[in-house]
Each structure stands twice: as C-alpha cells, then as structure tokens.
Amino acid sequence: MAGNVFGNPITDDDVKILYPEVTDITPKLRADVAFRNISTNGRDQNAKNFVKNLKQRYGNGISALCMIFNATGGTLTYSGNKDWHGHVYESPYPAKIQNGQWGAFLHVHPSWFAGSEAAVIYRGYNNDGTLCDWMLSWGIPYIGDNHAYTEIREGRHYETDHWNYIKGLLESQSTKHEDIWNGCYSIVTIGEGTSPEYVGIMSLEGVTTKK
C-alpha cells in the first residue's frame, strides 16, 4: 500500500459478508459497502493525521489539506492534474486509490502572493463498465472566499484543454459542490480560512444517498 492511501480495500469478500445471498456482485454493491466503511478502523482519521503532519512540516502559508475517498466499486487511477496556483508538497497525488480507500495530499501556494488553486483527475468505471473521469478542484485565494468544484465526464475528457472554462466554474462556486453524470457521483467540500480541509468523495449514483 502506498504511503498516502489509507484503509484496506473493500472487495467482493466484504460484500459477501454484508450480502451473503447475492451471487452477482456489481461495482455498485462494492461501492455501497465501501461507503458504509468510510470511517471504519480509523481510515478517515489516518488520512487526516497524515495530511495534518504534512501541513506541520510545511509550516505557515496558504494550503489545502486534501482527503479524497473512493466509493466507486473499483480502483481509481491518477490521470492528471492542473495547477493554476501552487503545487503538491512532499507527497504526490496518490497513483491508485482502491475501492474503500482514502487518499491524502497537501497542496500549497507558490512562494509569491497567490493562493492554492488546482484540480486533480481520477479515472475509473461506472456500474456498466464505461470509462469515466472524476475531476476534483479547489481554490483558496490570497484574498476572498474559498471554492470547491467537481464534475465527471467521459474517460480522457481532460486530455483536451478545458482548464480556463473549469477555472471560471470553480471560482463561481461556494464551499460545496456535487455532480452526477452517466451513473457516477462526486461531492466536494472545503472549509474556511487559509489552510482548510478539502474533502472529495468519488462514487456511483445513488450510493451515498441510501438511508
């Protein structure tokens, strides 16, 4: 397991424990069990402790304490990022986040007077096996309110340069945003202040809204 992912992956074996009568295990079922286990065995707290330790080593200055969770039923693979202002500090974006795992990283502002503003893309599949890209973005301006924005599109969508358009969408948002597209779901939130926590959940439609 990479040093910046947390929690044991949720697999078919975990699904069988919760749904012993089910014989056809779908990605959506694995996603459901992953979301039910979003905080089990301290996986969420371990991700938070990791990024807080990164922040402590970094010191003062604008930064985003980023924690992202995979409840898609399959493995998500890092597929690129966009830095408008700043860069990740010390620990890279997680290369792979398996179902039921948290990934964590710290994004910090550049040395000059600017905030932290960036996006990251993870690639995976919807319940039907269609390739999809989850895009998560955040903005902590040097002056002004923080922003969070997310969207999901077809696989490799972000290999085309949409970044000026996305930057405008990001900066028009407040501190919470969600998207549903082609059976996929994502939600992002960011706190207030100059070094807030940023939380993103990548999932499938209907998984996180179950009672």
Provide a descriptive summary of the structure in words:
With 211 residues, the protein is α+β, with helices and mostly antiparallel strands. It has 4 helices and 12 strands; from the N terminus they run E-H-H-H-E-E-E-E-E-E-E-E-H-E-E-E. It has one domain (5-204): Mutm (Fpg) Protein, Chain: A, domain 2 (Sandwich). It has helices at residues 12-18, 27-36, 43-58, 163-171; strands spanning 5-6, 63-71, 76-85, 87-88, 96-97, 102-108, 116-125, 131-140, 147-154, 176-181, 184-190, 197-204. Strands 1, 2, 4, 6, 10, 11 and 12 form a 7-stranded mixed β-sheet that branches. A 5-stranded antiparallel β-sheet has the order 5-3-7-8-9, covered by helices on one side. Strand 11 (184-190) and strand 12 form a beta hairpin. It is globular, with a radius of gyration of 17 Å. This is 23 kDa jasmonate-induced protein. Pfam families: Nakanori (PF21230). It comes from Ziziphus jujuba (Chinese jujube).
